[in-house]
């Protein structure tokens, strides 16, 4: 009989969740899009809009209100760092427009609510606040207070009950999808600025937005990557949200970024319901009062780095107060930037509101590693980093550098591996890392921040194994306080880089991918692993000659290496450098002279991590750069990362960075193969070497490598007063490797000779 029934009992039971979900969706649609509100004042509109959907508000907004967890993770990470210096200071959080209390409950999983002295939820909508009160009562939180108030003139009970001075009394303020709903946002943001702690206050915002073209490079840098919305997107979303009295006018975010200093900014697109069509712009933003002390960063940028970008003040940085021992004394030599000798009696003597805020680089919490930069047309050529690893031997460098703790270095950033090696091996007092590609700076900045903030196991999984499934979480909750906003945005956008194999990303990753394909097609991928596990050179050479050499040096691969497009995109070899090696021989000869001596000289399993990475796509604990070893990692992390304080990361051309440095301030410079990139006889080379001569101390050393055995620009160094000597030159045919990489035909050293009186 039951089989003949039109509806079976189990159908009714299993369909209950579906029916419940359908009811929730119908309520959402009715109250949001169909039911007339019929109210004039702001509070009445809110109450009527939410009264029938308050209990399903959270269930219907998870997919729409993106970025809330990111905001709370970021905020919690920065709060922890701020608390380290003043652990006993009162911690007060005000969540404005917090509605149902969802954010506060979520924050408890990230940063325990019990650690706050007081939490205030402020909202004007009573139906939503009823949900919040019920939620907090179930959790038994006695330090959380729900206030039904207008956000523009909110008043905390402790200000009168405990006699607390409102000014600077609040530690943390959040506006999660509420700034766009508050009509008098100017008044609100001014009030927040008044009550927020001037030195350790934090404000976080997540919201929808629209924005057109930024009027200046400075504002574009503050707003971050992908802030600009197309005209159709701006027009459509402003009109769409206006129906619900939600304002996506650009003025709200513009005033937020003007009133406060930006710490972090991320612009995303909410691919809601129909991912490739519905793309609602939203942003996650973290800031602090502009009155906070940024003198340490100004000193690092302007005095030490010769970089005035991001400071719109009509005068240059005033030297630090004599009582401030945080910043070390000025390096050797006179500063290029003249300093104002008059000291301000206090911070209150400076009128800061008449000028734009400083760059986001200035408002960072921790280390002044990254110097400010503005977007440049040449940056469009660099969609990502070219080098995910450094292809020069730092062990060989250390034999000739004669580094000490008193040296000031100038190096090309690349992937930062060698700069980290120098910091471990000698601890120089300053390491200027320079690269025109911002993404190379983002990569080194990630390494510095990760060393400072992560445990060794997480760090090695990222940069040793090349994968970490928790990277997105680590980025937000641990690494972010040590990163610039620009670097943070880059890694948010590219957070999948560590999902499978990091070293297969970037332009250099294409070379590794091609090698993997070749090995697989030739069915020698097993032999690749055997080669990297050899215990003797004899065994290694045997596998190389019998199995891998015929594959790698076959006519098809050699033809690929002859392609200038492949040389640039996969190997990072520009046209001029390629021509230099062709002038002294063919591609086949150059490759054999590179690879054969390496295989017969260095064991990949325990020594030559360069080729082990190229073959396996990852490092191993027994064969990896110094910064990935437990001892190297510990050395960099020791004493709160003191060794890392030497780093200054510049995003500019070499000659521009040199111009900003004071005369006679550098003692060592390594410019890699950079000069190979220029056309022979280029005046740019003359200008760069002239600047190198100016900034080097007498007796200072400059090192470079070249694809040519005798590069043409050696004579330019001599002409400007350097004494030039070879460090190593590859023979023809090459019998021995000149270093573990052996990729270059020669290495040179130039010493600045003392000027003749």
UniProtKB/TrEMBL annotation:
A Pfam family reported for this protein in Swiss-Prot or TrEMBL: Methyltransf_25
GO molecular function (one): methyltransferase activity
Domain Methyltransferase: 94-198
Transmembrane segments: 12-34
Keyword Nucleus: no
Entry keyword set: Membrane, Methyltransferase, Transferase, Transmembrane, Transmembrane helix
Annotated GO biological process: methylation
The keyword Methyltransferase is annotated on this UniProt entry: yes
Protein name: S-adenosyl-L-methionine-dependent methyltransferase
Native organism taxonomy: Eukaryota, Fungi, Dikarya, Basidiomycota, Agaricomycotina
């Amino acid at each position: 009989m039951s089989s003949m029934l039109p509806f079976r009992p189990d159908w009714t039971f299993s369909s209950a969740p579906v029916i419940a979900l359908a009811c929730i969706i119908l309520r959402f649609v009715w109250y949001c899009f169909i039911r007339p509100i019929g109210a004039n004042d702001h509070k009445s509109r809110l109450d009527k809009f939410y009264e029938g959907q308050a209990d399903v508000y959270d269930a219907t907004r998870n997919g729409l209100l993106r970025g809330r967890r990111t905001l709370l993770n970021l905020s919690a990470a920065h709060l922890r760092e701020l608390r380290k210096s003043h652990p006993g200071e009162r911690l007060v959080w005000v969540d404005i427009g917090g509605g149902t209390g969802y954010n506060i409950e979520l924050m408890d999983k990230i940063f325990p609510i019990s650690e706050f002295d007081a939490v205030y939820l402020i909202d004007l909508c009573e139906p939503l606040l009823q949900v919040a009160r019920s939620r907090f009562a179930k959790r038994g939180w006695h330090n959380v207070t729900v206030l039904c108030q207008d956000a523009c003139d909110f008043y905390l009970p402790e200000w009168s009950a405990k006699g607390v001075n409102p000014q600077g009394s609040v530690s943390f303020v959040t506006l999660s999808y509420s700034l766009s709903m508050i009509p008098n946002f100017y008044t609100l943001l001014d009030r927040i600025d008044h009550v927020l702690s001037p030195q350790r206050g934090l404000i976080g915002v997540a919201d929808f937005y629209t924005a057109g073209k930024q009027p200046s490079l400075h504002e574009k840098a503050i707003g971050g990557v992908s802030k600009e919305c197309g005209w159709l997107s701006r027009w459509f979303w402003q009109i769409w949200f206006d129906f619900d009295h939600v304002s996506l006018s650009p003025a709200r975010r513009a005033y937020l970024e003007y009133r406060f200093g930006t710490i972090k900014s991320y612009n995303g697109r909410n691919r809601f319901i129909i991912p490739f069509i519905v793309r609602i712009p939203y942003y996650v933003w973290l800031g602090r009062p502009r009155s906070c002390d940024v003198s340490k960063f100004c000193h690092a940028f302007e005095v030490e780095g010769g970089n005035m970008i991001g400071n719109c003040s009509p005068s240059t940085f005033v030297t630090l107060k004599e009582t401030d021992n945080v910043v070390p004394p000025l390096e050797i030599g006179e500063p290029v930037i003249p300093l104002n000798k008059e000291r301000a009696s206090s911070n209150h003597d400076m009128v800061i509101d008449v000028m734009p805020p400083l760059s986001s680089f200035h408002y960072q919490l921790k280390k002044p590693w990254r110097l400010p930069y503005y977007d440049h047309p040449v940056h469009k050529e660099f969609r990502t980093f070219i080098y995910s690893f450094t292809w020069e031997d730092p062990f060989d460098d250390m034999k000739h550098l004669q580094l000490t703790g008193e040296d000031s270095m100038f190096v090309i950033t690349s992937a930062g591996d060698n700069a980290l090696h120098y910091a471990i091996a000698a601890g120089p007092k300053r390491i200027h890392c320079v690269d025109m590609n911002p993404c190379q700076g983002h990569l080194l900045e990630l390494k510095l921040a990760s060393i400072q903030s992560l445990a060794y196991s997480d760090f090695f999984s990222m940069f040793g194994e090349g994968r970490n499934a928790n990277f997105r979480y680590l980025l937000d909750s641990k690494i972010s306080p040590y990163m610039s906003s620009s670097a943070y945005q880059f890694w948010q956008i590219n957070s999948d880089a560590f999902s499978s194999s990091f070293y297969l990303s970037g332009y250099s990753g294409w070379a590794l991918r091609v090698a993997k394909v070749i090995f697989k097609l030739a069915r020698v991928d097993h032999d690749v692993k055997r080669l990297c596990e050899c215990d003797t050179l004899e065994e290694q050479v045997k596998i190389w000659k019998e199995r891998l050499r015929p594959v790698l040096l076959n006519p098809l691969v050699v033809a690929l290496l002859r392609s200038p497009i492949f040389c640039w995109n996969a190997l990072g070899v520009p046209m001029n450098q390629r021509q230099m090696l062709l002038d002294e021989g063919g591609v086949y000869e150059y490759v054999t002279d590179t690879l054969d001596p390496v295989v017969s000289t260095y064991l990949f399993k325990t020594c030559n991590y360069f080729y082990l990475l190229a073959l396996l796509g990852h490092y191993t604990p027994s064969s990896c750069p110094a910064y990935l070893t437990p001892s190297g990692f510990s050395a960099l992390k020791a004493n709160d990362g003191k060794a890392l304080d030497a780093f200054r990361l510049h995003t500019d051309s070499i000659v521009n960075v040199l111009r900003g440095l004071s005369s006679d301030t550098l003692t060592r410079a390594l410019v890699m193969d950079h000069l190979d990139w220029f056309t022979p006889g280029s005046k740019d080379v003359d200008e760069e070497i002239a600047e190198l001569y100016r900034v080097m101390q007498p007796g200072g050393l400059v090192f470079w490598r070249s694809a040519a055995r005798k590069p043409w620009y050696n004579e330019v160094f001599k002409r400007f007063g350097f004494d030039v000597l070879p460090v190593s030159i590859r023979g023809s045919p090459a019998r021995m490797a000149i270093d573990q990489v052996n990729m270059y035909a020669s290495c040179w050293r130039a010493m600045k000779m003392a000027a003749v009186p």
